[in-house]
Every structure is written in structure tokens, then in C-alpha cells.
Amino acid sequence: MDVINAARFYVDKIITDSSIQGMKALLLDARATQAVSMVYSQTQILEQEVYLVETIGKKHEAMHHLKAVLYLEPTDTNMELLVAEMKEPQFAEYHIFFANTVSPSMLSRLAQADEGENIRQVQEYYGDFLAVNDDLFHLGIDNSLLLSSPNSSRSLEASRIFEQNVKGVLALLLAVKRRPSQIRYQGASDLAKRTATSILEQIENDDIFDFRRQDGPLLLILDRRDDPITPLLTQWTYQAMVHELLGLNNNRVILRGAPGISKDLEEVVISATQDPFFASQRFANFGDLGSAVKELLDEYQKNAKMNENISSVEDMQAFMERYPAFRSHALNVSKHVALMGELARLTDVYHLLDISQLEQEISCSSDHSGHKRELMEKIDSPAVQKPDKLRLALLYMIKYESYNELNDIKSALNRYNVDNVFLLDAMLQYAGDHKRASGLFSQGGLMAKLGKTISSSVNGVENVYTQHVPLLQNTLESIGKGKLKDSAFPLASGGNGASGKPMEVIVFMVGGVTYEEALSVAEFNKANQVTRVILGGSCVQNSTSFLEELKVSGGQR
Questions:
Q1: What's the pTM?
Q2: Do 91 and 59 form a contact (C-beta atoms < 8 A)?
């Protein structure tokens, strides 16, 4: 199971379809644009006789010399655009590929609209997910925390989001051609149970899941609310740091406005499929990353010296042959040096080493009086940014909710005009002691980590900044030992209750996953020769997106 290969397979089939010979236009909706850009560069697409890539619905003069290839979500909005397109066709013919299952009513409507018989084929492909790493995907769905709101069952928006989550998981299963032999869910979560049950019902009622393979994977449905700690923590690995400090959206990073950034680096792409350095270093910690970037720079400088000694026609010819690769290498080096520099700058500006140490102590050890004293010092400190004061307060309240200090903490934050203090109440309503499953802190203490070799460092300091282990890692360890408890992770009705170590596992977290959890999965897969895990979620969360969703779920916008 490789989600990048699964996503690329569909794009490959679409743009190399043997029935679409000649010059093509690729029409995408916003969702498909994201999915395609995650696994294909525009240059790679243009190499397949694709002369135009644009958004569906864009109006321009007719281009009857081009054949239109459409890759779309099967939504009502897209259907309206297709009907309008069929009334005034702008291309010679249309080849339509839907990124998920299509209802018969939609197909009937499309057939009626095609009065000129311009549609040559309609296919269902199942690329309705965003492939980030080979073992990490997400659905690009915002505000799934809304599903945990008490009023979500009566909300049309929540119903839409729930259905999107279910359909996204089904699309992933179809893309990797797997029918789960077991579907389990986080037993303490009604949302996880409802999601698992809905997925099971649709699988059993749709013969499209009738794959020959019998030993299907374990599909495990989890709820973000059971671990509200992980999305709030400062991150120290490359992919996670970029996402937390700079924003990583569909493999793109906006550096515009950062000090000293040149124009060609204002928006950069870091993709495991297009950037070998990033693929090898995405899980590197900050200290090791600095060394790796220096080696990359040294290698570039060595190659640059080769180009200084041009004294003959043969030398010039050799230079021109290697120039494209040299130019690409130069841009790649500049990109990673710029990213590393900006991460280092923000780490200093925000005093993140100091803040992260307290975050880790709160998450991984018990010292109520000491942690409260340090928290108050951070709240009083003018060097600590207001959003970081709020994050620390949230972590503290999740850990020490039973001490009934909510009003004290809110008063301290209000003294310094910290925004969104109401999120402390919202967090406890969302994932307080009585809302989440037990075990968030019971296996996450410092003593539990001493058995794990800590060999990494941040700026030369022994790494006390990554003591925290996501709750998911404990679940993975149970799966790897074949000891996932039925009481904690019940079987969705109608499934096979076979025990033992599964060979394949797909974990889906409603409410979003984090890059720290992606690291846990990557490390599990690297160390485990029996079981392969794929991780997915509604979205990929960082502290900013997590708290924004919490605002919405709490009725604030």
C-alpha cells in the first residue's frame, strides 16, 4: 500500500489514456487541482501532450483543436458547471473522470445535457484524497471538529462534513484496492463508532468492493478529541516545523515577506515525490537538518567550481549538457537554505526552545506546582508571544483540569490581553477529562520514554524537546504485538473478529492528524517487518488550524 503511487496511478491513466490521442486540455476543480499537484509537477503533465491546464467553468474562446480531459469531484456544483459546458462546448470532445463514485441521477442528468454528443467517456476513478507521504494522506476537509459538537446531528454543515469523511475513506480503500477484513473504532468515541458503522454499511451494500484479495487490512477509526495534546506542541522535525511555523499547504510554502527572501523563493514546493533532499530529510530533527543543509550547500559549491574552468569548446558543450541539472540543483539548494534560515529565525524570535521545554514537561511529567509556576512566568514574560501563552495555558488545563484553576488561568491571560481566552472553555468542552478516552497521560510520561534511545539533538543540546509520544504510537505498538484490546477498540458490527497481527493497517483520524503522528507511523513501518500502516485524517493539523477549528466547533468564527 502506497498512497502516492495510488494517486499517481489515476493521474497517469487520465493523461495517458490511449483513447485521447493528440493535444489535450486538462480541466480540474479546486479539489482535483490539489490532488494532482501533490503527485505531479506541471512540467510532468505538459510532457503528456497537455497544452492547457485550467479550472472547470473558465470562459474563453472555443478551442476545438483540443480534447478536454476533466478530473472532478462528483458534486452538485461541478454538475452545474458540466451542464453549462455541454450547452456551449468549448472543446472538440470531452473525457470525464470523476474522483469518486457518481450517483445514477448525476449520470442521467449529464447524459440529458449532452445533446451534441460531445462526451466520449465517463469513468469513476477514486483519487478523492491528498497523498502527502507514501504512508500519509488526508482529505483536505476543514472543520471536522464540528462533528464533536453537541448540536452536530442537527447541522446540515456537519452532515456534509461527515459524509465527506466517509466518502474520502471509501475512495482511499478503492484506490489501494483493499476491502477491510476488520473495521474497528475508538470505543470511547461516538463519532468514531458512527464513522466506522457508516463505512461498513456502504462497503457491504456496494459490490464495487468485491476484490479478490481475502486478507484485507484492519481499518481503525480514531477521534482527534482523544489526543488534543499533539496538535498543540512545538515541532522539531523538518516537515512538521515548516507546517507549524510557515504553513505547508498542498506541498507549498509561502515565504513572501520573510526577511531577505528573493522573488523566486516567495513560494516554494517541498514534495517527497519531486525533491530527493526533502524526501530524505523530512523527518530529520532541527539539529541534524542543519548539518544536512550544510552538506547540500557544500556539494553545490563543489559542483559550481567545476563550471569555473571552461577553456575550450568541449568544456562549453559539457557545461551546457549539465546546466539544466546544475540550475535545478542551485534552486533546490537556495530553497532549503532559505527555509532553514527562516525556521532558525522564527525559533529565536519566538523563544521556541524555552517554550518547547515547558510544553514537553507538562505533557510528559507530573509536577503541578512547578508547572503552574513556570506557566505563570511565561504568561508574565514580554518575550513570549500571546499565541504561545495561550497554547501553554491550554496544555496546562488539559493536564491539570481536575485542579479547578480555569478562572485563575483565564485571569492571568486577560491581564496581558491574550486573544481567544474562551478557547480554554472550548477545549475542555471538546476534550476534557470526561470527553476523551482514558490513557492520554498514563503512558506518555517521561519514564516511559527512557527506554527509547534519544540520540537526536536540537542545536547541539540533548533532545528534551521531543520526549512526547503521541497516543497513536501506543496504539501502533499494541497493533504490532497483536494485542489491540476489543474493549478499547470494538469491532464494527458485521466484521470478522480474527485476532493476531494484521499485515496491513489503515488508520483514519476524524478531526485531522499531525506530522508528529506521521513520524510515528514512518518509524513503525521502518522497524516492523510484518505490519504496514497507512495514516490518514480529515486534514493535517498544526496548532493554528486546530484552534481555528475549535473556534468554529464552539460557535465562534
A1: 0.90
A2: no
